[in-house]
Design brief:
312 residues; alpha+beta; ten-stranded mixed sheet; 27% helix
């Protein structure tokens, strides 16, 4: 392999830090060829990928049809090869692999409680889902989210000027859930949640290959916003953002009933997806190792239940 090709490959790799080991890891990307076709910069991507991209993300029929096939009984034959190819640990599953009736059953799997222990510090908030994370203590002081110099507009994201102003100097956590991840999400703190407000939008990929090309994907995609009223951390905004092949955001909680940190809030159907959490200014001090990884330009793979930060 030539030096030029080696450098190009390195640029295309998605590298993250695993919080448990603190080692740098290269992500195995599900559907990498399709992502490069749709979001790449070469001639083929420009001729074929861009028109195809607009057709797929702006037409919900694609996600519905694709989702239907993932729920068919024959799709279960993909489960064991998928587990093997992406080094997923089936000992964490609440149900044995053979009990999944479709690939989507496996995708929305529950885990044994001991597989994701909840941080017990009463003054701590927790990581709400398995995923690759970016952390910002004060979003007003950062020069960009994911790509330096590129910020998305909070007012557009939330579709609420007063909320955007309230969180303009707050803390933000962005979680990217890959198809290989556990896809249920949980409450980060004891709270009373509101109803989820749905904002319709497109279904662009939230993979870094796509996000680095257009940071505004977050404000264009279908998303849901829930306000969590927390005695310890004030008002927390919890956003679920759909992505390619994930038209469905499922809420499993009961609005206006008290929830404990770690209780399930909902889950995504098949595909990649994203969470964004917003905390009011000064209400949360994020853990130092999380901020350090983001400052160095790396996502950090975290697991649901790990410590996120503490009350200021």
């Amino acid at each position: 392999m030539t030096l030029q090709k080696s450098l190009q490959q390195a640029r295309n790799e998605i590298t993250f830090i695993d919080r448990k080991t603190h080692q740098k890891c290269v992500e195995k990307v599900y559907g990498e060829a399709a992502l490069k076709l749709l979001y790449g910069d070469d001639l083929i991507a420009k001729i074929i990928g861009i028109p195809l991209l607009h057709l797929l993300v702006k037409n919900p029929i694609f996600s519905r049809v694709y989702g239907f096939f993932q729920k068919c009984r024959w799709s279960r034959k993909k489960i064991k090869p998928f587990i093997k190819n992406f080094d997923i640990d089936p000992s964490e599953f609440l149900l044995p692999v053979d009990q999944f009736k479709s690939f989507n059953d496996f995708f929305i799997r529950k885990l044994k409680p001991q597989a994701r222990p909840i941080e017990q510090d009463k003054n701590a908030a927790i990581i709400p889902a398995d995923g690759r994370y970016l952390f910002y203590q004060n979003i007003a002081e950062t020069d960009g989210f994911i790509v330096k110099g590129q910020k998305f507009n909070l007012e557009t994201l939330l579709e609420d000027p007063s909320l955007a102003k309230k969180y303009a100097k707050g803390s933000m956590i962005i979680a990217r859930l890959c198809p290989t991840d556990y896809h249920r999400f949980h409450f980060p703190a004891d709270c009373v949640p509101s109803n989820a407000k749905m904002i319709n939008g497109w279904l662009y990929s939230v993979n870094p290959i796509a996000i680095k090309k257009d940071i505004h994907i977050f404000t264009q995609n279908k998303r849901s916003i829930t306000e969590l009223d927390s005695e310890l951390f004030g008002k927390i905004l919890f956003l679920e953002i759909g992505a390619t092949s994930v038209g469905s955001i499922h809420q499993t909680y009961t609005p206006f009933q008290s929830q404990m940190k770690g209780d399930e809030k909902g889950y995504f159907s098949f595909g990649a997806s994203c969470l964004i959490l917003l905390f009011e200014e000064g209400s949360l001090i994020l853990d130092e190792d999380l901020l350090l990884a983001t400052n160095k330009g790396y996502e950090m793979r975290c697991l649901m239940g790990q410590k996120l930060g503490s009350k200021n």
